[in-house]
Amino acid sequence: MSYLKCDVIIIGAGVSGIYAAHKLSNDLGLDVVGIEKGSDAGGTWYWNRYPGVQADTDSHVYRYSGDPTVSPSWDRAARYQKGSQIRDYLQDFMKRQDLDKIFHFETTATTADFKEEQARWEARTDRGQTFSARYLIGAAGVLSKPVLPNIPGLASFTGQTIHTARWPEGVSLAGARVAVFGTGSTGCQLIANAATEVEEMVVFQRTAQYVVPAGQRRWTDSESHHYEESFAELWDAWRLTRLACGFEEPQTGAQDVDEKTREEVFENAWEEGGGFNFMFGTFSDLAFNRVSNNAAADFIKQKINVIVRDSDTVKDLTPTEPYARRPVAVDNYYETFNRENVSLVNSRRNPIRSVTPHGITLDDGRFFEVDVIVFATGFEAVDGAYRDFHVQGREGTNLLEHWGDAPSSYLGIATPKFPNFFTVLGPLGVFSNLPPGIEAQVDFIAEVIAVADSTEAATIEVHPDAVNRWAVESTEMAQGSVFAEVKSWIFGSNVHTDSPRALFYFGGLGSYRQRLRNEIDNRLPSFQLSTRSRLTQQ
Ligand code: NA7
């Protein structure tokens, strides 16, 4: 049992928590304690170690913008970094910035309660520690609570079952007979990469996805030179774009050009690779105009038809919904289904009857004997991170109950009744490439704390009206997008099937950052600072 007082508690040592520790400890000089479940830093990149795991955003925008240094294993010439390279980078950044002593690893935060009388947060851990701080930062990740399906007979399986986000260190699929559930970004990366080493792979696909090539390649010398020489200037420009994925975003809609031009643009993007590039770097309106979206969808469907040899497999791989999930980009995905050792089961047409001790039986009686079942079945996004960490604000208000079926927080950051508590990537945060979105949020939180501290306010709390207005605006924008037409984690509908909810602000990072700037420039009009002096209360 231990009791420790500090200024700030940070939950999570991923991209968000590490950067928050850096800003608040190194820049603001606050006494910061971090709590992290894993045995080291990395967050998403700590937990996800499945075969083929890599970023699908270009390397120079998948790192911290204020840090031109990279870690020894970072491949400066590679367009995308592997998961292990990003993990190394984050752990290396932490050491270089002297942050490793801040975090308590292999420690799970179980509860955090706001103590009204002292205006302090008290967080408890599974190791019996209690930390008391003026501020609490939830940096527990946007995709950190894995979802496992409930399949009859699963408990009887005698082989190995693995969720991709809990991949045991050192486990290889080489030579194994493998069943894969899930064909999102994770499943598709795993399928294309593990297929070359497994003995057999059977993919149980529930919903066909649109997959474009990632386009992994070496940068040319002149490209490398350009990115290194102009790192800071390029970041200044990328931050103002919608997605901040490092490519130029077009102003032209897909209907503003003739069919031949449209096809050429799609073909060039296919050749270049990149899912965000295909969806947001070709035309301005694929996510908002159904006709334009159909044009992109038809282009990808044609590619499936050309690449995949077996006509039944083509039919099963061809999506029937709009192109409106988080875009998937994997090299050689469709080509993988031409391999002799890979087969596809359309589990909507042919559902699974049960898992047995040695494999999987379908309703039509077919049986697949397998050694390993891999679940690439996704996450309970956004509020899922708070499912096992109970946060209690003013008047005993429970955070998850307060968020309910329509979780909302102002800018993804602040929730009424939870003073001095800030979320990074909370509900209705910006939909963008994550590291720049995270930097924007954490920089803002640091500025808010600096303002609160400079006035010696005991508490700072967002006005409910500001959250309501933000929720209406974000929800209307999200509902107006083609993304609202499909069921995916972006709307939480992979888990909350009957209650899809807007979880992101779709207005783009540039305009989101402007909103943050307005708050700071106008001395935080959406927040209420308590007038009591903190010093008199302690
Ligand atoms: P996703 O994108 O949520 O994909 C999960 C996949 O798992 C998807 O194909 C699901 O099919 C499938 N799934 C989920 N439950 C089941 C069951 N019960 N049976 C069969 N198939 C199932 O998760 P990812 O990990 O791939 O990606 C998440 C994000 O991480 C990604 O977007 C990147 O930002 C990084 P469904 O479509 O629901 O029919």
Automatic annotation (TrEMBL):
Highest taxon of the lineage: Bacteria
Key word Transferase present: no
Keyword NADP on entry: yes
Family matches, as InterPro entries: FAD-binding_Monooxygenases, FAD/NAD-bd_sf, Flavin_mOase-like
Keywords assigned by UniProt, alphabetized: FAD, Flavoprotein, NADP, Oxidoreductase
Gene3D superfamilies per the UniProt record, alphabetical: FAD/NAD(P)-binding domain
Gene Ontology MF terms in the entry: flavin adenine dinucleotide binding; N,N-dimethylaniline monooxygenase activity; NADP binding
Protein family: Belongs to the FAD-binding monooxygenase family.
Protein name per the record: Predicted flavoprotein CzcO associated with the cation diffusion facilitator CzcD
Lineage: Bacteria, Bacillati, Actinomycetota, Actinomycetes, Micrococcales
